[in-house]
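As the work plan foresaw, our protein records have gained a structure token line. A representative record is set out beneath this paragraph:
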Amino acid sequence: MVTKRHLGLFLLAVGLTALIAILASDMIGAGRHDGVGPVQQLALTAVSLIALLGISLLPFGDRPA
């Protein structure tokens, strides 16, 4: 059974992994813009919200998701 803590940890891991991947792609120079482009800003916002949602689920513990 998946609990809210498991779901929170999964969302947090996905969000942080995607955040690191987006920032790493910027560091290696993928894309046409210098720095963080508009699509990357939207993606960073989205994955940050996913990570925050994951953090918000952690305190609920062993309740079923």
In short: The chain has a mean pLDDT of 89. The helical segments are 4-27, 38-57. The first helix runs from residue 4 to 27.
